[in-house]
Amino acid sequence: MSTASGTTTTDGDTSTKGAYVTSGEEFTRDTAYIEDRITTDGRHGWPVEPGRYRLVAARACPWAHRSIIVRRLLGLEGVISQGITGPTHDRRSWTFDLDEGGRDPVLGYERLQEAYLARFPDYPKGITVPAVVEESSGKVVTNDFPQITLDLSTQWREHHRPGAPDLYPEALREEMDAVMRHVYTEINNGVYRCGFAGSQESYEKAYDRLFAALDVVSERLGTRRYLMGDTITEADVRLYTTLVRFDPVYHGHFKCNRQKLTEMPVLWAYARDLFQTPGFGDTTDFAHIKAHYYVVHEDINPTGVVPKGPDLAGWLTPHGREEMGGSPFGAGTAPGPVAAGEEVPADHTPLG
Q1: Which residues form the GST C-terminal domain (predicted)?
Q2: By CB atoms within 10 Å of each CB, which of 126, 135, 137, 325 scores lowest?
Q3: Is 170-278+304-348 a domain of CATH 2.60.200.30?
Q4: Active site residue 184
């Protein structure tokens, strides 16, 4: 059963990491998550409360990377703590092997699975990131990754930093929801349909569908700096986490190889524009990204060899998008320096 994070449980599979490809079938994502929400009125039993919750994420995972970016852009570091797992996992769970003693320093857990089982002793599904965990009880609250970031924007507004961007502006929501739906179904998930295709036919269908969608967003971004206009929104966060992984992983590992990102001029410039914006590049860990995909997907890359490239220097080259007008934070301001202890290692990023 494939899940949002890539954690899998497959009957009859004997690999240590789990199986991702079902021979003869196209990839279908399991989208059933723990749908509890943390809200200002606490209607799900989880009220907004600074210091109560911990965001557990992996820099390797595109779905989790969204939450890392949004938390930083909104300045919620002092309100919601953050735990980072290692880039790889086994078939059971993501693990806290980056922390001293291999345990999360707040939750005391070795595995994120422990938070799921603390609330659901017979939890039957894959253990996914991002997950929000209640610190006092150690119980998972939600792993509904699309809703987590929207709630950070709307439900935690009282705790946003001064100058924080409005990532989900009410006046744009109808159009924005449609754009994000297209980005998710056709691009975010589209690369996985290519990579986990179990037949030539399903792969070629997924490939054509993915690049048709990339052409659509490229055309859109040819006339505006960001997906929704002159400032960044959550739509840009969602597209960025796929684009930044495209050349290191999806082009080769997932066979999304009509072109590299660096060969798609509009999308490459747009991606560099975001990468050079505080909150995006400074949360991007290329070493974790490559280790996750090439090590965990044993059925696609059985040797476990992690590519040395691509050269990352291009991410810091001028992009020219500022000539289109607009600014990433509009009337607001950029977030300050990355919180102490949350920095991406210098040798994992060209920003180092």
Answers
A1: 169-293
A2: 325
A3: no
A4: no
Task: Tell which residue, 175, 56, 37, has the closest CA to residue 106.
Answer: 56
**Dihedral pair phi/psi, residue 330, rounded to 5°:** 55, -125
Rounded to whole angstroms, how far apart are CA atoms 242 and 189?
A: 9
Residue 6 predicted with pLDDT over 60: no
Chain-wide mean pLDDT for the chain? Answer: 94
Task: State the number of CA atoms in the 13 A half-sphere of 147 facing the CB.
Answer: 15
The residue behind tokens 């820099």 is 59
| Active-site choice (20, 33, 53, 192) | 192
What are φ and ψ of residue 124, in 5° steps? Answer: -95, -5
Residue 3 has pLDDT above 70, yes or no: no
SS3 153: helix
Query: Residue 256 catalytic?
Result: no
**Can you tell me the distance from the alpha carbon of 8 to that of 10, in angstroms, rounded to the nearest whole number?**
6
* pLDDT, average across residues 274-295: 98
The domain locations on the chain are 170-278+304-348
Residue 268 assigned as binding residue? no
Q: How far apart are CA 131 and CA 351, in angstroms?
A: 27
Q: Which residue has the tokens 């009859």?
A: 12
pLDDT digits (tens, 9 = 90+) for 78-112: 999 999 999 999 989 999 999 999 999 999 999 99
**8 A C-beta contact, residue 57 and residue 130:** yes
Q: Is the whole model's pTM more than 0.90, yes or no?
A: yes
Check 20, 33, 53, 61 and give the catalytic one.
Answer: 61
CA–CA distance, 3 with 130 (Å, rounded to integer): 12
The strand pair at 140-142 and 131-134 is best described as antiparallel
